[in-house]
Amino acid sequence: MIGLTGHAADNRAVGGETEAAGDPPLELAGYFSSRAGITQRGGLAWSWPAPGVAWAMVRPYGWMLDATVYRTTTDGASWGTPRVMSGAPPTGAPAPLAARSASQAGALVSGGLWTTADGGATWRKATPLPAGAAPTGLAWSPDGSAWVSGAGARLLRLPASGSAWQPISLPTPAKFAGTGIATLPPAWQPGGQGGVALTAHGWLWYDVTADGGTTWKPALPPIQVSATGPDAVEVAGGGVYVLRQAGSGTAVWRGDPATGTWTQIGSPLPATGAAAVDFLDPTRGWVVAAAGPKASALWRTQDGGRTWQRAPLPVPAKGA
User: Fold this and answer.
1) Cα–Cα distance between 309 and 254 in angstroms, integer?
2) Which residues contact 31 (CB under 8 A, 6 or more apart)?
């Protein structure tokens, strides 16, 4: 997912994010701490395509007009020359960056998709998006196809060998048809297996595909959630993790696409304002929640949510 790792997906080896040892999101945040004024205000997006490899996009803010992309192949020990893109990501786009490998990545900037195959040294613009497209997220499937998500119950697919975008319609519960649906970037696994979360008015449901995205079917019914962005949805270990309000706290729920059921895992966190969840496997996970008007806290579990430990996050100095 994006809030902690860059992209909501169980595609840690095929074009989403791969978790390296330790806590890569915190390492990355530490690297950019000297740029806190930019990363806190403009925003930071990242993608982990392989162990030790990370791509990061610093969004523009204020007088800045263009996004900047960074890349490391040494688990953050060193970073290559920053690449200033020609433009900014779409306004409100939570997932404008997705990497496939140490050399291949894509970015949504200047109203279109730009790709690189040489580690970010050069970028080229892909086939223009269809008129009226409002892209908010990007993902890559194992066959090399680019997938763009946005408003409405559909995805846009650009095959690796194709020259035209293909609109793919997604199943939608009748009561949500035409009611402000947003589609998140799809998650992919080898063999054409994939899934995608859709949201509307605080509800979330999940569709799956077994043929590389040509056809989709409902897998998890709508569930009311407390956060609906890509940060707040995680696909890992065959499960879909979301956040729900539980009294004065926050509960993590896990959906099983194989059975079509949702189940609360463990005990609720004694925190509100949770906006990001990340699980490496059924036992190890993290949640980012509010810890005051201007601070957040990182909560971690190593026993499947039965217990949670809080680790306060650093707050940038005023004026940094």
Assistant:
1) 19
2) 76, 79
Domains of the chain are: 24-312 (2.130.10.10)
Distance CA 111, CA 99 (A): 18
Cβ atoms of 157 and 213 within 8 Å: the answer is yes
Alpha carbons 157 and 146: distance in angstroms, whole number: 6
**pLDDT profile of the chain (320 residues), mean per 10:** 35 31 43 44 80 90 86 88 89 88 94 93 92 90 94 93 90 88 92 94 96 96 91 89 92 95 92 87 88 78 90 57
Helix (H, G, I), strand (E, B) or coil at 24: helix
What b-and-e string marks burial along 234-260, b requiring 16 or more CB atoms within 10 Å of the CB? bbbeebbbbbbbbeebbbbbbbebeee
**Residue 282 pLDDT:** 86
Do residues 138 and 146 touch, judged by C-beta distance below 8 A?
A: yes
Neighbours of 63 (CB within 10 A): 5
| Residue 311: Cβ-neighbour burial (10 angstroms; 0-12, 13-18, 19+) | exposed
Helix (H), strand (E) at residue 148? strand 146-150
One DSSP character per residue, 75-135 reads: TTS-----EE-SS-PPTT-SB-EEESSSS-EEEEETTEEEEESSTTS--EE-SPPPTT--E
pTM: 0.84
Could you tell me which of 169, 165, 129, 128 has the C-alpha nearest to residue 152? 169
pLDDT at position 311, please? 78
What lies within 8 Å, CB to CB, of 63 at 6+ separation is: none
Q: Whole-angstrom Cα distance, residue 247 to residue 204?
A: 20
Which residue type, as a one-letter code, is found at position 15? Answer: G
CA–CA distance, 249 with 174 (Å, rounded to integer): 31
